[in-house]
What does this fold into?
Amino acid sequence: MVRGDLRGGFVRRAGYIGSVQDFHDATRPHTISNLIALLSNNRPVLDRGETASWAASLPALADVLHEAGLTRLSIALEFRPFHAGFRRADAVLMGVGDNGRPAYVVVELKQWQRAVWDSVREQVTDTGARYETPRHPYDQAAAYAQFIRNYTSGMHDESEVTIEAAAFLHNATEASIETLRTAGHRRSTGTFSGDGVGRRRFSERLLEIFDADRSGTPVKDRLMDAHYEQGPALLEAAAAIFSDPARYPLTDDQYAIFAEIQNAVSDAMSVTADRNQAVFVVKGGPGTGKTWIAMHLLGANAHARRQVAYATNSGSLREALQKSADFRSTFDAPAKELITSARTYWDSSRWRHPLDLLIVDEAHRLEQYTVRTGHANPRTLQQQLEEQHITQIFELKKSAKVLVLFIDEDQASTYRDFVTIDEALSVAQRTGASFDIFELREQHRSGGSEAYEAWVDALLDGTPTVWHDEDNFTVRVARSPQELERLTLENAAEEKARLLAGFCWEWSTPPPGAITIEDVPADISIEGWHKRWNLRKGIDGFPRDTAWAHDPRGAEQVGSIFTAQGFEFDRCGVIIGPDLVWNAETEQMTVRMEESKYKKLVSLHRRDPTAAARVRNQYRVLLTRAMRGVILYSTDPRTVEMLASIVNPADEALSS
It folds into this structure.
């Protein structure tokens, strides 16, 4: 038996590893409490009801394996597949097939007594479970199996290693889950109930895969000693998707920069390079194509069969990119898993076998220290990170030989945003990596208007200047929030438009039991005009925050700095809240931090007054999301008058 624990904050690969015979003995009434305690120790955060689930599921699984005579197999419980974050497979069976080759079966355990498959919506319903999940339980197991196949050294070749999946619903009968087995051949043959027929089918299927007379120990060692490695099928899929110019088009200038960066990456990886360690910073403002260039880098290096991944701390951007790549089939190589969170590279076991290339988008949004679980690290772990200066950017560099950081320091806008170009240089020097900077100058947001970008900079950081509309970009000033909404969304059928606002109103969570959108209170209230922020969770057909930017119904909610950054829209209506107002005496826009509802930024400002610049950066982001035009409104009347006086002033004079 191998005990799972937390050492230095790093989660071990499984909560329990042992032979099926030992596992069977450990699930008996007088010993199962010890097994559950062991599994609990390996859980940084234990879900409610998890221990009760283990107490019911594990003995049922142990009995099936014992009755089938598969006691020489090995089993891992709470197995964490490579690159799966904190997601865990309930059980992985490990043994030798009749062909003498390694064989693995990932098992998903469910407490359900019944379940219905909705073939129209492709989801499970009517389980009676406290926490509903729409995903077919076989698909859950198959996804973990695919993780092992695509991200584990020595597991990629289907002709050499068998990796299968199974769902075991030990409380159900064949009749009560009949429709789950009408959801396609693989789901049918891989889904088993707990009645006599279901257990017999499960045993027969396992005996088709495993040789009961062969020990599973060597096969177990092969998986546990393996390291993270992307398989060729995964890289082939990524190369096709992320190099596709139809999905991620580049201008000639952007392609030239991409080629320059790619050549530098290739030179750094060459066997003739001095160090094979490099950090590249790519500077670029809004609309310069940073994300599209990053996608082409991902595709090109996947095509070259390099170990490569893309990372960002923006959940909205990750979801949008995964959606744009059009991943449809559960059983295809999950190339979307190469689009990752920058918060998932802290496990030091990954550092022993670093990626060839890690591409980090919106690197200015990297945090100083990664929070491993929950909302904050345990005090002793946080102290260790600070003493050893294990910052998030250090973790990312340790995870890859070459690190490419796409960054815009002027978009650092939240209390967590930490990384600057100087910090990137410091990490390069610390890790013995070369360091180079590339700069993107061509921009395509705001109609390609450099004049508008300069106008925004002057408005936020200097003395406001007059704006006159250009052929490709227009600015309007609304006198009321109702007018703002009308001007922004009046061509919604033809344009992708969004309402945006500074963070000056509380962001509520839908109340428990909320079913319709009317159950969710409006967060923003201005002069009788009421709107909701983008939702923390989807409800009544309205998208949650991470899908707000690309779901059409997002237009009915107001976006913030947390969801707008990284996206572009045809037209934007921007509400400038009371945290940024016109000061006639200084003739500048003034930050009023006391009006912000961004509590952690307010707290940072108390310690560091320069944090006021982040409010200005928030509006810089909001004001530069539009491709064709922006409509401005301020909750402060004097600010509205100032804006009206400098935006197309000749037109304003004529209209009056």
User: Anything to note?
Assistant: The two ends are 83 Å apart (CA to CA). The longest helix spans residues 50-67.
